[in-house]
Design a protein that fits this description.
Layout (H helix, E strand, L loop, with lengths): L4 H25 L4 E2 H6 L1 H4 L3 E8 L5 E3 L4 E7 L22 E6 L12 E8 L5 E8 L12
Parallel strand pairs: 1-2, 5-7
Antiparallel strand pairs: 2-4, 2-6, 3-4, 4-5, 6-7
Length: 149
Amino acid sequence: MRIRPRFFIGGGLIVLAIGYLIFSSIRTTSEYYLTVPEVAARQSVLGGQAIRVAGRVKPGNIAWDPNSLTLKFEIVPIPDVDDAGAPVKPVAATDPVSFRVVAAGEPKPDMFAPGRDVIVEGKLSPDGAIAATQVMTSCPSKYKPKQAQ
């Protein structure tokens, strides 16, 4: 029995297609999310690309329009905490970098609030705003009972 060369060529094309699909899916999901300072440092490279950014909702500048389902807010870096859970104060007093986020066409997440940690998926525009396609709130890592006063 003689195996025809076209079966080898067809099999090779199938193996190449599967390899390409695996490579492209690993490449797009290999970096789960970036932090706000990482996006600020790589802003020129990330412009126009799909990104995920983890940050904290800046209090005082949230705008929600339920008619158009448009949510506008700013995210700032999540502060570092020590072993006791208290925020670590930076040595130099500088304004933290922040990014404007505009999410249109999606409902506001239930747990969305000022000071809440969020992960924003979207594209970084040249003016430094993030056009979000999805906003996810993260739950607190520890649930603590209320302190008796």
